[in-house]
Amino acid sequence: MPSHGDHGANAETSSAAAQSDVMISFDNVDKSWGENHVLKKLNFHVKPAEKVSIIGPSGSGKTTILRILMTLENPDEGVVTVDGDELWNVERGRRIRRETKQMKLTRRKIGMVFQQFNLFPHLSALQNVMEAPVRVLGMSKDEAHERAKELLDMVGLGEHLNHKPPKLSGGQQQRVAIARAMAMRPKVMLFDEVTSALDPELVGDVLDVIRDLATSTDMTMLLVTHEMRFAEEISDRVVMFDNGVAVEQGPPHKIFKDPDNDRTRQFLRAVLEH
Amino acid sequence: MTVDWSWHAVAEAFPLLLRGLVVTLEITVLAALLSYVLGLVFAVIRMSRIPVLSQLTFLFIEAVRSTPLLVQVFMFYYVLQSQTGILLSAFLSGVIVIGVHYACYTSEVYRAGIEAVPKGQWEAATALNLPRGRVWTSVILPQAVPRVLPALGNYTIAMFKETPLLLGIGVLEMLNRAKEYGAETFRVLEAYTLAGVFFLVISYIASVMVRRLESRVGTL
User: Fold this and answer.
1) Which end of chain B, N or C, is less packed with Cβ atoms under 10 Å?
2) Do the beta carbons of residue B144 and residue B113 sit within 8 Å?
3) Contact list, A182 vs chain B (CB under 8 Å)
């Protein structure tokens, strides 16, 4: 088990120099929403195949990290790379081009699962999973169909291939959404509070699927979550975010059992009491 | 005052007006199709924020919505012809002007329908890397269009009721037929009443159908 202590907020590993060792890098990334400074000069690096959970109070900038990676938001400043390629390179005050070719290519390596599932409601579960492989990867319909079936089987929805999302429970929808993202064979998967919108009894099935992915694939996974026990169980590293800053990070047993930072302690006390 | 009503005149005018009604319906259907397609194009152009083109489309829509349809009919049929020499039939001119005019309204309907599609749908499409065009055709429009069908239906009824304006450029639609019959026989009461009844019956039936559609789409 490698030590993760050297993954601190220092950015001495430049992404170009140590390409193979860094899947995701944020260097001096800054983002504000008006008065709300959600990311303050963030330096954050994730190794290939690493599973990182991001915890912290809401509004602390956790989700913004994922959204910048998915190019749903742009940073105000800083450099973000994925698998050695630049996704963002923003100088403060410079106008941002919404989308570059590089961005599109790099984005293909990333998949995302959303809090609100965001399935296409007019398409069946199967079609939801097939759409992107056919349209983006140019997979034949037969092949995409086979693969979609496998993936839906894997997430336990082999019986619901032809159901449309409104006929499925929240937990089932979220599992379809995971299958849909997996169909693009991403190197990096982003999970944005994927169980927060679910009824408590439906959370387990979704977490089971993510746990399977975490243990059986070498995908790099970044999870923003409020499921502390789950984060502790599956993560290689946990990052505590507060007020736009990674206040503490380390292996899960350290963060959850013996945190150094006061804010981490307060936060964990507050969430674990419930 | 006694009303001089002749059923004989009604019977005589009926087939004439029916022929006019066919023209009225043809114009309505063609103009409606034009407005459905063009309105969608306008809406997508505006919402895609294509530089220059989006602004021009916006200005065009504002101009059309701020001037009377009859003025546009005259401008298109008489002025365009006299200035450019392009000769289009009155029928075709009517279809184009009504279709384009209403496209400026249907584009607003589409816009509202498109904006009603949750932002998460765009985000999911982006996350899957679907190409821009695909996002529209596979994700956004299939969700937006069913919601706008009732409003398109209502505008279609409005177009139907606007066709008599084309009398101004000599299209032989239903009102023009009634006018013709009235002028020949001096039986204006029967002719215009009959035209009014045709409009009333068809518009009413159509609006009942639209309301049904509305309740169906609403429960989707």
Assistant:
1) N
2) yes
3) none
